[in-house]
Write a structure and sequence with these properties.
GAF domain-containing protein; GAF-like_dom_sf; Beta-Lactamase; 6 strands
């Protein structure tokens, strides 16, 4: 079992000293790298009133820029993450291809597994933490760790980023 004590303390300190809207997500990315492991990391916001999603943070700005919005698609991914409020997990590129049209780019980046962790506040899906790594990286143990140890930090990062966005 991964020891989260040190990485969580580092995350807490980084969140406490964050002064830009990206800083809380930088801290969440570092926490994720040190605990679960991640090659590609993004945070997508979800506006259920307008039914639009937007990438608000990315570890790979050239490949996955922070810009624009896209309509929310009502598919099995949506059912899992939004309706059931569970993480969507796929551990092969073939599985990813059944849901994500950008699967070829995902593969070129050396990724073949994904965890999409829902971020729910006020009984509303506000976003997802999207973690990608090589095929079969996200074992049942890592998925359980992500759900147990990253859910609250993801909420904190989202809220801190929102607060810093409105303050600037």
């Amino acid at each position: 079992m991964t020891d989260f004590t040190g990485p969580l303390a580092t995350f807490d300190h980084a969140l406490s000293t964050a002064i830009t809207p990206d800083a809380p997500f930088d801290a969440l990315l570092k926490l994720t790298r040190e605990t679960i492991g991640v090659k590609l990391f993004t945070f997508m916001t979800a506006d259920m009133k307008t039914e639009l999603a937007q990438r608000s943070y990315t570890s790979h700005p050239e490949d996955y820029p922070v810009s624009g919005t896209k309509p929310i698609t009502y598919d099995r991914w949506f059912e899992t993450v939004h309706k059931d409020r569970k993480s969507f997990v796929a551990n092969t590129l073939a599985d990813i291809a059944t849901v994500f049209p950008d699967y070829e780019l995902i593969g070129r980046l050396g990724c073949g597994s994904v965890i999409n962790l829902p971020v729910v506040l006020g009984d509303t899906l506000v976003g997802t933490v999207n973690m990608l790594h090589e095929e079969h990286h996200y074992t049942p143990e890592r998925v359980a760790q992500a759900q147990a140890w990253l859910s609250v930090p993801a909420k904190a990062a989202y809220l801190a980023s929102q607060s810093l966005s409105t303050a600037s």
